[in-house]
Design goal:
homodimer; alpha/beta; TIM Barrel
């Protein structure tokens, strides 16, 4: 949910009975500090934050040049100057982490890899509950052995980017229905289910499958508090079960989103690694969001996105809790 | 489960409290008659049968020749003569169907497409309950509109071949956790969940997600009654959550199985369509099963295969029912 979790969304989830998580993976340290302050001004409920353990990509100058040439006509179509390689493709993780540590939030979650032991110890010394993210049993075991307090198990249904750090992406595409029982059997820490959790019945099902809790994503994308643009929300309203696909075209890392023109025209070949491609397409995506051109927006969404309700976050939260309570 | 459902397995499922289904898609009419008679000799419980609505492939003689050349070294490795194109690549559906109709079984299930209306009417006239198979909402709706009495919703977790007839295969790879609620909301007929149902807790979860029942596959593969070879069973005993992949290499149609040498060496390019490729690899697979060479066997298995128990079918059935009853 990096890029679309606003302080208003995080606060509303907390007020609604959940634990809001600020998706800060792509935010500069100063923006992280500001978002935490804004969220604290909106709620006294606890909330957490998520960062990316991003690998350092090998930059291939010729490949980047080919991609810039491919992107140029789309930039022109949106009235943008030709695309360029930015000085930095992603925020500095050490600086992001220091901003987070300073804020002493009660929950820290990370994805795309393993947090180093020194930083994990620093979080634990401050009493922070640390959650890792796994897309298969092997990753969940690594996170449990590292000393995480809980692990998110992301089914292949999940929208956006998944953890996918210990096995090749294609081998870790496991449906949540098969993944949860196997992860729950493999680790002793609590397992949090992620991947198209859209209803109270699904929450109850996830608990039966071995989860101790669930993480919402697509269920919140259509809320007014979410930072999804009107074009993104309009696309969500048209979603079907078969509307998503996994693509590297927007970010250089496999991510699930609603199929659109950009994904189909750029294809999957000759894409610079994450976060290079993500940086190259950032101006294009921002302009497309602003101009209402969903065909160029990375419309991250899970396979359950068709079940997303365009209602306030408070209504989503109370509906899920009521549906769950009625079953249990 | 075509190819590995024996009369003993079908009978044991029925005796255990389930409804056994004979996977007869690749059986000649005479073999169908024989298997039905054998099953009837083993049990007085009701059972059903499954056939394939197989598309007629376009044969590409040059492509077939290239594949025969690729397969020749593997045949030699197994001591077989060079591979050949058989006179027929699959049994005649009309003759298979007539054998089934004649047998007046209480349940008929089909996959890979839509049964024609005349045959559906013939089954209904004999009081047969007809089940179609869907891998997405669009397919489930087509099956409901056709007049099926129930629909199997196959998650992407499912082992072997999936229905995949109305949308391109890659678009219909929907995890069961996301698929079931959407199929259940879209059709009024009962929905049967398939895709790595391995435990009573998963059965209960499937019902919460919208199913009226479940279909077992991988849960029965390791039983002594199942026709899986010792090599196949040994491979299953080593399965992990990431051990399967979808491949066209064995049959020409995407199917999920345990990753092995054949899949990896043949790859996914330049494969003749189903059922041509299936016929070309049939002698190789049969010899590999007989010789205990799992690296050349199509080890169809779902993403939950690691949870399969090598115990008699009666034990699997009673365990699932006890686990389910303890929860409900």
């Amino acid at each position: 949910m990096a890029g679309v979790t606003t302080p208003a969304l995080v606060a509303a989830v907390g007020e609604g009975g959940g634990l809001g998580l600020l998706g800060a993976g792509m935010m500069q340290p100063s923006a992280i500090e500001q978002a935490i302050a804004q969220t604290r001004a909106l709620t006294r409920k606890p909330f957490g934050i998520n960062l990316f353990i991003a690998p350092q990509p090998q930059a291939d100058a010729a490949q980047v040049a080919r991609m810039l040439a491919k992107l140029a006509p789309y930039c022109a179509e949106l009235g943008l100057p030709p695309p360029e390689v930015p000085a930095r493709c992603a925020p500095d993780f050490a600086a992001q982490f220091d901003a987070v540590l300073e804020a002493r939030l009660p929950v820290f979650s990370f994805t795309f890899g393993l947090l180093d032991r020194a930083r994990l110890a620093a979080l634990h010394a401050r009493g922070t509950f640390v959650i890792g993210t796994a897309s298969c049993v092997a990753e969940a075991k690594l996170l449990a052995e590292l000393g995480c307090d809980a692990v998110v198990a992301q089914g292949a249904e999940t929208g956006g980017h998944r953890a996918s750090f210990a096995v090749p992406f294609d081998e870790g595409q496991i449906g949540l229905f098969a993944l949860l029982p196997q992860v729950a059997a493999a680790v002793e820490i609590p397992v949090i289910a992620a991947g198209s959790v859209m209803s109270g019945a699904q929450i109850a099902a996830a608990l039966l499958l071995g989860a101790s809790g669930v993480q919402l994503g697509s269920a919140l994308l259509a809320t007014p508090e979410c930072g999804t643009s009107p074009a993104y929300k309009a696309a969500l309203a048209q979603a079907t079960d078969t509307a998503t696909q996994v693509t590297r075209s927007f970010s250089g890392r496999p991510a699930r989103g609603l199929r659109n023109r950009f994904m189909q025209e750029i294809g999957e070949a000759d894409i610079p690694d994450y976060p290079i491609q993500n940086a190259l397409t950032a101006p294009l995506r921002a302009a497309a969001n602003a101009q209402g051109r969903a065909e160029f927006v990375s419309l991250w969404a899970g396979q359950g996105a068709a079940l997303a309700c365009a209602e306030p976050t408070a209504a989503v939260m109370s509906r899920l809790i009521e549906e769950f309570d009625a079953l249990v």
